Here is the input.
Amino acid sequence: MHYKLALLGFGNVGRHLARLLMRKQDELRQRYEITFSVVGIATGRHGAAIDPDGLDLEQALQAYESGHGLEPLSRLPVDDSLDFIHKCGADVLFENSPVNHATGEPAVTHAHTALELGMHVVTANKGTVVHAYRQLTNLAAARGLSFRFESTVMDGAPIFSLFRHNILAAQLKSIRGVLNSTSNLILGVMEQGGSFEEGVRRAQEMGVAETDPSADIDGWDAAIKVAALTTVLMGIPTKPQDVQREGIRAITPEMIAQARADGQRYKLVCSARRVGAAVETRVRPERVGIESPMYGVDGTTSIIQFETDVLGLLSVVETDPGPETTAYGLLADFVNIVT
Amino acid sequence: MHYKLALLGFGNVGRHLARLLMRKQDELRQRYEITFSVVGIATGRHGAAIDPDGLDLEQALQAYESGHGLEPLSRLPVDDSLDFIHKCGADVLFENSPVNHATGEPAVTHAHTALELGMHVVTANKGTVVHAYRQLTNLAAARGLSFRFESTVMDGAPIFSLFRHNILAAQLKSIRGVLNSTSNLILGVMEQGGSFEEGVRRAQEMGVAETDPSADIDGWDAAIKVAALTTVLMGIPTKPQDVQREGIRAITPEMIAQARADGQRYKLVCSARRVGAAVETRVRPERVGIESPMYGVDGTTSIIQFETDVLGLLSVVETDPGPETTAYGLLADFVNIVT
Here is the structure.
């Protein structure tokens, strides 16, 4: 089967996806009989290009990186992102516009429009899940399409798909995880005797933290992930502001030292626990001991633990994810949809 | 859809499966529109029962546990296990006869016969995978059926299904894991100052080790798991005797103490690593440091790590699996096949 793909959003994730698609082209054909062409790419500030016969990805990357922009490659004029979606004619839209934590827009509208036009939607944008999971999933189902978002939590590691395909007929009782790299890096630097500010700098140097790292440090990023997990895996719609949230600003070197002396480490722990028909969701610094798989989670490594009625406690650890892993989650969603 | 199930093997796993089927009956109907009847149960030494209208599982468990045997419940005479397979008329056979590491028999013949007769086969029996994976998988495919075996490694935790449904279009470069509970328990007891023999006794008291624990201690159980993983996930047929194997008999209290002093722990590590078109497989005690997710794996907890070309290092940890978890793997395979 041949699929026409469109990439809306051509930042770090979108460009890694383009490279991954090139690298996996032969493998997709040989293992899954999937062929594809990328009929459209829309960037934030470098224009957009549509070619019904397929764009040359190498050329598109060069046009982007040279700063010339994508317009010269386009066979159609493109006004804006909605115009792009209407004109691209794709079978699958990869929605990777920047996350808007407060409303999920414009990504929600992008996804909605693409589904209405008959495209599958794959996204790494947490905003769509937190703000419109039910709406987009129902719309997709009504059209015989799929809305997928594996890359929104723990990069490309299979989390959502685990409960779609593997852990079936199970009751999910609780979730715990360490899901924010910036906080984890800062706590690690403080364990080595560094200051909070040094930790922030390290995370920024590594390209993990934003210039303004508050969303990470104050637990918002973690709260959004908890909300997404709870909404999708427990079926209980949850907004980030519903999550009890305490960041790592109040953690002092003395507290870190005391924990170490007791054989423990501070981790910014995400959690969601069913209580009757409701759920208790929380982000807060906790001390964990060596008996916990969270104990060894360092740097940008992340972990998620699922407690169900049928398996003991199942943990998934993603060690040192590289820049390709988020892009890989998008690719895996695509392959999963069409096979 | 209604499915007729047959349970061949009614030991600990088979009986837990029966209880789990009863417990999940409503959930399967409500969430997946699956209904089922168990039309046959064959035990090792308590006879067999076939009832085309469905057996009462509670009654079957009582008949087994009271020692009266299952014959009184049967509407047909049953000569032996092959006769059972021919007469049971099931859609799905759960093959849980005892493992024969040397040949895989009689489980391989059971599975083969059931597939020939048009049944899906689900098994927790490692022998079938190590000795006949390709044969049984090809036969199943030719008949439009499935042969599944999630419970053969790490109980019910999703391992094989992860590469069937989640980690798609990926190259698996290496596998590492701690997959033998007896060895891990013994090493743990020795870390607490106990002797090797005390460790063996503890594992036996917990029902984890056999009366003769050599298969665990000498690394055979781990080697079989490595062979199964390599055969299925890397596509390279591997026998347990192909695996470089070193058990834990040579580990002394002094070695354990030295490792601890260095901040490390001994683990019986399973590994498989692609080298060109071949694979290097190994079971041996290794010292691991706190940076490894293996470090915190205690007691009956197990871990497996996958290195691919698309995700960093992905680890799955199953903490304190209960007796139901192997049975759950069988149930999940069944649901996966029919949904």
